Amino acid sequence: MSAEIEFDSSWQDDFLERIDDDGPWGDWQLFKLAIEVEKHLVIPEFEGLQAPKHLPNLTPLPHQLETAKQVIENMNGKAILADEVGLGKTIEAGLILKEYMIRGLVKKVLILVPASLVTQWGQELNSKFFIPAITQKKSYVWEQCDVVVSSIDTAKRNPHRDIIYQQDYDLIIIDEAHKLKNNKTKNYEFVQNLKKKFCLLLTATPIQNRVEEIFNLVSLLKPGHLGSETAFYEKYKRDSRSLNDNEHLKELVNKVMIRNRRADTGIEWTKRQVETIPIEFSPSERELYEDICGLKNEGDWLETSAFSVMTLQREACSSREAVFYTLKNMLQRKENPSQAFQQQIEYLIKKVEAVQQNSKAEKALELIKNINDKVIIFTEYRATQLYLQWYLKQNGISSVPFRGGFKRGKKDWMRELFQKHAQVLIATEAGGEGINLQFCHHIINFDLPWNPMRLEQRIGRIHRLGQEHDVIIYNFAIKNTVEEHILKLLYEKIDLFERVIGELDDILTKLEFGNIEDHLIDIFGASSSEGEMRIKMENLSSMIEFAESMQKGDSHAAAGNS
Amino acid sequence: MQQQEIHNFLLQYFKANDCPIIENKPGYLTVQLTIALDKELMNRPFYWHYLEKTGGTPNPMKLTLITNQKEAPDNLKGEIIHFGSPRLHQIFASSKNLAKYIRLYENHQHGHQQTPLLPWLCLNVKISYQCDRKRDEFKSIGLQLINGAMVEDFHDRLLNIPLTPKIPDYSFTLSPLVRPRSGIARIENYVKSEIMKEDHTWAEEAKQRWQKDLQLLDHFYEDIEEENESYETEKKALQDQYEPKINISFINGGLFYLTDRAI
Known about the structure:
Chain B: Keywords: Coiled coil. Chain B: This is YqhG. Chain B: It comes from Neobacillus kokaensis. The complex is a heterodimer of chains A (about 550) and B (about 260). Chain A has about 550 residues and is of the alpha/beta class. Chain A folds into three domains: about 50-265, Tandem AAA-ATPase domain (Rossmann fold, 3-Layer(aba) Sandwich), CATH 3.40.50; about 270-485, 3-Layer(aba) Sandwich (Rossmann fold), CATH 3.40.50.300; about 500-560. In chain A, about 50% of the residues lie in helices and about 10% in strands. Chain B has helices spanning about 5-15, 35-40, 45-55, 85-100, 155-160, 180-195, 200-220, 230-240, and strands spanning about 20-25, 30, 60-65, 80, 100-105, 115-130, 135-145, 150, 165, 170-175, 245-260. In chain B, strands 5, 6, 7, 8, 9, 10 and 11 form a seven-stranded mixed β-sheet that branches. Chain B starts with a helix and ends in a 5-residue tail after the last strand. Chains A and B meet through β1, α1, α2 and α12 of A and α1, α4, β5, β6 and β7 of B. β1 of chain A pairs parallel with β11 of chain B.
């Protein structure tokens, strides 16, 4: 016999006592009801999902049900859920959690998510899954509540850390797990030392990254699945991207990872409409911009500073406030500024002061009034964010700011305010992650991020499951500036806005071209001139074209047409 | 469980607990809770504590449960009940809790004839087969405490017999030869031996999965020489995850005094 048999004898004494005392005895109706209940609650099969019949208000999509089944039946409850953004990883995790709870395999659960998502997770588990999840607020919660949602930054700090380590968790769920790709961090160490009976790691970024990152993530989930550290790195170079050329490694990873793609789900997605809005500078704005461009040729004063001309150029396309803020910083940070440097800056500051309007803001205002619905404005710069808030208020439009640095409660509050009261949400880059705003379907990209991958994250906030309308994206670009060129390149060369990044990544990785994010960061972050940028971009786009044609060739070959 | 079954279940539960049914219409149910049931279900210990201290008039709540939103009136305020709702599971738990132990007599119609009633011990148990997955089985076993006869599906057989909590007139009970304590032990042994006869491939497979993961784990930590805490943690986690176990848990049970032809 290969399994222990436990016979629960705790009721026996009670029963014998009642025989001696001649009662008290229960009611026959209730006795029968209890049996009837038990017969309904008994789960006669190891396989299959019970959760859906407990969740009448939730209609999981086929790929979500399939994922839950896979994780429980074939992955033994330890998996990386790596669906593309917006396919409902939370639902999948909720289904798995619910299934384990119904079957009585899981009672104590720890859910670690970004601070901005704590409340949302708590609410969804309660309302969609009837799981009494508690969001962590007091330190006694760890011990007294069975299902706790917390941010990892809170959890890893004492006194919480010590209390958490004493708990016996059955299931640990970690959202945005790609943040744990570095095994030298405190967060990594914290998670590594947690006892993980069942464990789900959720991540949206494709695991086609560095082999090292894959190793770290998988080792967190299932140590040894990819071998020991030394053995692993003997086989695969640390920074190589050879995941895709190595079928064996890929197969291993796929044993612990599920990645659904939009294209495979068969769901009809609402469309993305992209509209580029060209804007003319006012004369004074143009003058400022030209003066900044002129800096390039004037001596070496910029080389020693940490700011590039390109930064200033892009800022000039956003707002005079953004330029001013950077200029002020340049002046303050420079030790013993030369007179020429000081004069140069002061000259530019004068130019900034000469600017009296913001053509983009005017356009934005007009657009917002026309749309007459909720709008999200994304900008890269804090100064622009503040300005826009002020400007919209002057014109009778209510707006709320949103930044990554906001505390959890404030983020929730701002989201709520936006949903219920304000027409506009103005977010800086860091605000793009970890907040779902499906109730809105207009985005204005007031300026462009350095890393264009972030555009996908911006759009992903609203173009996800639950979005009922086509999503309209307005890209602002000032005519005849670096901005317009960047946009043209992104838009015309690689169709960035309408495609989902995952697709591009797939195309590139198949041919070992690396991943698109690195290419884009290099092109837009490291190029010193527009010319360089353009050339690099053309290279990238021809690479993509080539890869695509190869892919088509492949499928032809597979179909036997060759 | 279908919505109609849930409705009937709730109705029976409240009736069995002596709660006046105020309304029982298609799609919903309104009941006046008794004090005992208010305490059992409504989770307001402070109210009851306060009331007992001040000696006020107890005012147990009314509860409206909507079992079918389509049939219930639109503006009706109440809790929507479905198979997954926490309230239903609370009531499930309560119904199990309120009648764990029972003693009943067969309400036979033998008139003035003196009738002997034989003692039966009944145990209703749930057997759970657990590794990283789980399945359950319900068993109802009856043991006659005089001749030691063992009967399966005992509960279903009882459903066809009229039963009463008071011993009927002109009846007498026979004293058990098997004491209840050893009766329980007999049933335990019987259930265990039945389990042993089953196919336990599931447990073998779980052990194989466990071994496999354990080997991976050892391999992962073989470079690290000193005692490693996370290694021990992971090892324990694998045991918790995979170790096959069979739990026999008690649902309810009791003594039944039945005529000799009843079973």
